[in-house]
Amino acid sequence: MLLFNIHDAKSNLSGLVADVELKHETVMLCRNGKPVAQIVPITPLGSALKHSTKLGKIKLHYDPVEGLAADEWPSDAR
Which helix (H) or strand (E) holds 20? Predict the structure, then answer.
């Protein structure tokens, strides 16, 4: 993790963003020595949703979207 005060970060913003993007660095921005914000790399949308072969082994023996009967709801939610 890289630490920068806000003034230095403002002067070097392009370089900091490049480090975050290319090296997956996290940059902590500080004011008066105290952390106030972070610049963090984002995960591309497609990479977070990878197919898992383990999911094919899950067997459900009920309908997971079936509604509940009135007596199955907690009394304070009826």
Answer: helix 13-23
Q: Which amino acid does the sequence have at 72?
A: E
Full-prediction pTM beyond 0.70? no
- For 9-57, write each residue's pLDDT tens digit: 999 999 999 989 999 889 999 999 999 999 999 877 666 667 778 878 8
Q: Dihedral of the CA atoms 3, 8, 10, 13 (nearest 10)? A: -60
Q: How far apart are CA 32 and CA 47, in angstroms?
A: 37
Complete domains list, the chain, with CATH? 1-41 (3.40.1620.10)
